[in-house]
Specification:
2 copies of one chain form a homodimer. Chain A has 2 domains: 3-58, Arc Repressor Mutant, subunit A; 74-223, no CATH class. Chain A has 231 residues and is mainly alpha-helical. The first copy, chain A, has 10 helices and no strands. In chain A, helix 9 (147-167) packs antiparallel against helix 10 (182-193). Chain A is elongated and about 65 Å long. The interface between A and B is large, with 65 and 66 residues. Chain A binds a DNA duplex (30 and 30 nucleotides) through helix 3.
Chain lengths: 231, 231
DNA sequence: CTTACATGCAAGTAACAACTTGCACACAAA
DNA sequence: TTTGTGTGCAAGTTGTTACTTGCATGTAAG
């Protein structure tokens, strides 16, 4: 019967997200949980122990489906992935902000911001490498991006989704609207930046009279197929 | 002789940036300022009044030089601009984090995060419009970016610089290294995404055998010269 | 010199936060 | 029934915070 324990943990996460460490008083947490303040101490001993538990149990959510190991339709796949990540980030917005602002003073909440973003960036980098191996990227000399720029592009897409999820509520004018189309727009900009050349099956989607990129020299860039983009 | 007043204000800004509103106790601020705690009250009355002053006087810094109204060398100009913005953001990192995390609970510090980023985004948008008017962007049908994607590209560059300045210390693996080359990399990715076609004078810089983008159809996109990219 | 003002120091108040202790009640397993 | 466990309630302790009052000091202008 540790129903109360989880109630307290969830309440603590909510209160912490809204008020920060110092503002998350034991009284407020107990009230939010609908539990006596003493019960809280009997379960967790101290306030910091309680918030440590919160930090360690909030990082395990991360139910964003991974990018496919076999790229078929990059725009569709990336858009779904970015959208899922943004939804997830939005749901943790306040908690992330608090954890980030207090990370220096109180590294306990570190696991909360944790490795999620870093893992996601690595995932995206690997995906781009796969795209390149499949010849889906334009890699002509003088045109193909060098590792530095590819990493920059990855960072830009990650920061776009992160910043959109975190900052849009406080400065909506800065972000593309409507919000529902932002993820797709970020992905299209990203693909264009890394020189994505749609496969033949995708060319039917193109609306204009001319294809998006110059044809020919199609499989020329294959000379460095196994090179990672980590410099 | 209001030397003490400014000393208190600066100390309050530092302490607030490090500890947040609740953690910025009057005692800590007074100690940091090397001033008796009572002096603080005699000057500002209350703690919240003091921090209000901090919020209103911290927004007036913003010494980032504007983008040139007459684009000549976009990569160079944008890189300098982005670099200056990142330096500025880095210097306000902790203060921004605190203000953002507490903005819901205590909008007093709102002026601190304020309109800086929004203004910068508008500046960048205007700059892109000028680039397009000058025919420096590839605007062929099916290739040129629609307003949604242009806004997305702008948001991505803004968020890249913001996220780099704010988040790099806590997750360095996510960002292109070395840090000193990040701004330039973001700008190159951005320019590539919005279809920047270097002017003839810039073509000498291109290292490869082929020019970056297809020539011809040079001034074709001029049919909508005055259209803003705000949809 | 005197007046005014800014500051420092000592002491205290009222509120609140993190806990503790002691006792009582309910309920379930032994 | 007994025993243990989880919970609630009342009250109190200890420390901190925001803020006040009263008084003494230095210093610069009149």
């Amino acid at each position: 019967m540790q129903e109360n324990r989880t109630r307290i943990l969830e309440a603590a996460a909510r209160v912490y997200a809204q008020h920060g460490y110092r503002g998350a008083t034991t009284r407020r947490i107990a009230d939010e949980a609908g539990v006596n303040e003493i019960t809280l101490f009997r379960h967790f001993g101290t306030k910091s122990a309680l918030l440590d538990c919160v930090a360690h149990e909030c990082g395990i959510v991360e139910n964003v489906p991974p990018l496919p190991s076999d790229p078929v339709h990059p725009e569709r796949e990336l858009t779904a992935w970015v959208q899922a990540r943004m939804d997830h980030l939005r749901s943790m917005r306040q908690l992330l902000l608090q954890a980030m602002s207090e990370l220096q003073e109180r590294p306990d909440m570190g696991p909360c911001v944790g490795h999620g973003p870093v893992d996601a960036a690595n995932q995206l980098r690997d995906y781009v490498v796969r795209l390149r191996r499949r010849g889906l990227l334009d890699t002509r000399d003088g045109t193909g991006l060098r590792p530095l720029e590819l990493n920059a592009a990855v960072a830009m897409l990650m920061n776009a989704s992160f910043g959109d999820a975190i900052s849009r509520p406080m400065m909506p004018e800065m972000f593309p609207s409507p919000q529902s189309k932002a993820a797709g727009a970020y992905v299209r900009v990203f693909l264009r930046a890394i020189g994505h050349r749609p496969a033949d099956s995708d060319l039917t989607v193109v609306r204009g009279s001319e294809p998006t990129l110059v044809r020919g020299a199609t499989r020329k860039g294959r000379h460095t197929p196994s090179k990672s983009i980590t410099e």
